[in-house]
Amino acid sequence: MSIHVFLLGVKIAKPGRATFEKRQREQGKKKKQEEKRRLRAERKAIKSQNAIAQSERVFIRKWSSEEFDSELSAALAIWDEADEAALTLDEVTHLILDKNELNWAVIKKETGEVIGNCEFLMSPDSFEMKLQIRRSEWGCGIGSETARLAIGYVRENYTEARFRVKTKPDNQQSIRLLKKLGFAQESATKEELCFIKN
C-alpha cells in the first residue's frame, strides 16, 4: 500500500542568486581543501625522499650508496639511453660519492620514479653540468625544467656560480636546450662544443 501526497496551490521557489552563489562558494572551498590535501601529501612524499629542490613536475635528491640495489639498474639504463658509455658499479659509486661533485637523481613527481641524473663537477672557476633524462621523457620540457631547477639550486647555495656544459656537435636537441637556457658557445672542436653561462 502506498500513500501519495499532493500539494495543491503550493508554489515551489526556484533557487535564487544567493543560493547559487553560496553553492559556488562551497564548491570553491571544497576544491581548495582538496588542493591543500594534495599539496600536503605531495610535500610529505617529497620530504620522505629527502628532496633537495622541486619544480612543478620533478624534484632532485641525492643518490646514496644504500640505493644501489634498487636504483642502480635505473641509473645505468638512463646513462645507456643517453648514449653514454656503459658504466661499471665502481664508476657509478665514484660518481655518486665523489666529494667534488653534486650528483642527484631526478624524480618525476607524478610517478615517484627515477627518470634521470643531474651532476655538477666542481672546479675552481666553474661547475660543469651533465644532465641525462630517460628517452621516454624527451620532448615535453622535463630536461629544461630539471636544468633550471638544478642551476637555480646551485646559484642559491654557491656564490658566483659559473656553468659549463659540453655536448657533441651533432646533438642539436641539447644545443637548442642550452641556448634556450641562456648558455653561449665558448669553444668548439670536432668532438665537442663547450657552452658557458655566467
Description:
With 198 residues, the chain is α+β, with helices and mostly antiparallel strands. The protein is 40% helix and 24% strand. It is built from five helices and eight strands. Strands 1-2-3-4-5-6-8-7 form an eight-stranded mixed sheet, sandwiched between helices. It is elongated, with a radius of gyration of 26 Å. The N and C termini lie far apart (86 Å). The model is unreliable at 81-87 (pLDDT under 50).
Task: Characterize this entry briefly.
By secondary structure, the chain is α+β, with helices and mostly antiparallel strands.
Helix content: 40-55%
How far the N terminus sits from the C terminus, by CA atoms, comes to: 86 Å
Low-confidence stretches: 81-87
Largest β sheet strand count, sense and barrel closure: 8 strands, mixed
Shape summary: elongated
Spell out the helices and strands N to C: HEEHHEEEHEHEE
Key terms:
198 residues, alpha+beta, Aminopeptidase, 2 domains, eight-stranded mixed beta sheet, 5 helices, elongated
Strand-helix topology:
Blueprint: H1 17-48, E1 51-54, E2 58-62, H2 68-81, H3 89-97, E3 101-108, E4 114-122, E5 127-133, H4 142-157, E6 163-167, H5 172-180, E7 184-188, E8 193-197
